Amino acid sequence: MKGSADLIEKTNSSGVVLSDVRDNNTCRSLGHINRLDVDMKNEKGFIELQMLVTCLVVLLTMFFFIFGTCIGVWKESTAKYQWFTEAMDFAAQASNITGDTGEVTLNEYLAREYFTLAMDEFMDDYYLESFHAVNVGQSIPGGVAQSPGYVATITVPVFDGYVGMVGNQSVEVPMRYFAVTKSERVN
């Protein structure tokens, strides 16, 4: 009979009676397979898939947050290094009053004062570890000095804050630079 429904009762292995109302046409198309069994077979792995997607979203969010923090720290340290080099170049040029490059050692105190003034303009906090004059042939960052100048070593804090799911972090970058003392002839 077309369109008639039958109540099918089955008992599963634990003794629970499973009842299902089915259309006779559905039973014929499924080949008399219990509809409850078919539904359970189609749901395999569904919960694992939801958990996998959720974990991937959380992990990607954390990755991009930490990656963005790293890019910000890199940008900040690059900017501070450029300010540091400008302050060193200014100090090397401003301390060379007479234009004689042989007086670099004599003008070390003056160069340090100019450097400190420039750095106080550019940055709020930095730690000056060393500042000294260098003559030709002495070692400098990256090799040997070909002309006299000044070498400074500082430590600059570029990040101090809370990083989500990591905790409080502080990043200090050591910086070293050699500024050449130049002399120009004025006619």
Shape type: elongated
Report the C-alpha radius of gyration, rounded: 38 Å
Largest sheet: 3 strands, antiparallel
Number of domains: 1
Question: Overall mean pLDDT score?
Answer: 79
Total helical segments: 4
What would you say about this model in short?
This protein has 187 residues and is α+β, with helices and mostly antiparallel strands. The chain is built from four helices and seven strands; from the N terminus they run ββααααβββββ. The chain has helices spanning 24-30, 35-42, 46-94, 108-122, and strands at 5-11, 17-23, 127-134, 139-140, 143-144, 149-163, 167-180.
Task: Write up this protein.
This protein is α+β, with helices and mostly antiparallel strands and 187 residues long. Helices cover 42% and strands 29% of the residues. It contains four helices and seven strands, in the order ββααααβββββ. The strands form three sheets. A three-stranded antiparallel β-sheet has the order 3-6-7, with helices on one face. The radius of gyration is 38 Å and the shape is elongated. The mean pLDDT is 79.
